[in-house]
Design brief:
By secondary structure, this protein is an alpha/beta fold. Helix content is 28%, strand content 17%. It has 7 helices and 8 strands. The strands form 2 sheets. The protein has a 6-stranded parallel sheet, with helices on both faces. A two-stranded antiparallel sheet has the order 5-6. A hairpin with a 5-residue loop joins strand 5 and strand 6. The relative contact order is 0.14.
Length: 239
């Protein structure tokens, strides 16, 4: 529960960064996500990346929309600025925040449902304007918060927990961002922290719009049809 605070105990031997802060200082509230959720793996990578970059927590702003992925902002850097927008509207809030204060480190956390359906237009225009924002898209192909409907990134042949197969072709956010001229585009996997942390650090250093599409394990038992041979390379590689 988010009302339960993490124990404030700090071991005296915890490693510190250049600011004298430990990784614990970059954590947030206790996660309320399902046990084993890939979003929590992304949170751990974000904590590590911000700590290694020596970012003062009060100089960062976290933005999100609606969905399981958008809860991530509560779970890291509790001393940072933050705003939870309505469904699909996070890029507009990020654009306005940038106009008001260009000196903060901006990171937006979204999901495939939040970004590629109701928020698709806002996502595209944030790229077009090259808004100074690291856009982290936690991509699992389903609407996990509303019990597993297919999202716009679901692969053809994916099966829902009810057994229905998806017949609609997916939107590839990486291909879309490249087509629109995004200035930083990458893809990684939530289960590979060794790869993900350096990519996050590179995105946070980038000035302008940066997209990191993070493929993660699905929140519901959705399977990929064995006839679809494209998903391993598309879902588990860096672009």
């Amino acid at each position: 529960m988010t009302s339960i605070q993490k124990p404030p105990v700090r071991h005296p031997s915890l490693q510190q960064n250049a600011l004298g802060l430990t990784r614990r200082d970059y954590e947030g509230a206790m996660s309320t996500l399902c046990a084993g959720c890939g979003h929590d793996s992304v949170t751990a990578a974000l904590v590590q990346a911000f700590w290694e970059l020596d970012v003062p927590p009060h100089r960062a702003a976290k933005l999100s929309g609606i969905g399981c992925s958008s809860k991530t902002t509560a779970y890291f850097m509790k001393q940072s600025h933050g705003f939870n927008a309505v469904h699909g509207r996070m890029p507009a809030i990020a654009t306005g925040a940038n106009a008001a204060n260009k000196d903060l480190v901006y990171i937006g956390i979204s999901g495939d449902g939040d970004s590629l359906s109701i928020g698709l237009g806002q996502f595209c225009h944030a790229i077009r304007r090259n808004v100074n924002l690291l856009y982290v898209l936690e991509n699992n192909g389903v609407y996990g918060l509303t019990k597993g409907q297919f999202s716009a990134s679901a692969d053809v042949g994916s099966k829902s927990k009810g057994g229905e197969a998806n017949v609609q072709p997916p939107i590839d956010p990486v291909l879309l961002a490249l087509t629109l001229g995004a200035t930083f585009v990458a893809r990684s996997f939530s289960g590979d922290k060794t790869q993900l942390v350096p990519i996050l650090k590179a995105g946070l250093r980038h000035r302008g719009f940066g997209l990191i599409d993070i493929i993660r394990s699905r929140a519901t038992p959705v399977s990929i049809a064995s006839s679809d041979r494209s998903w391993p390379s598309r879902f588990c590689s860096t672009t």
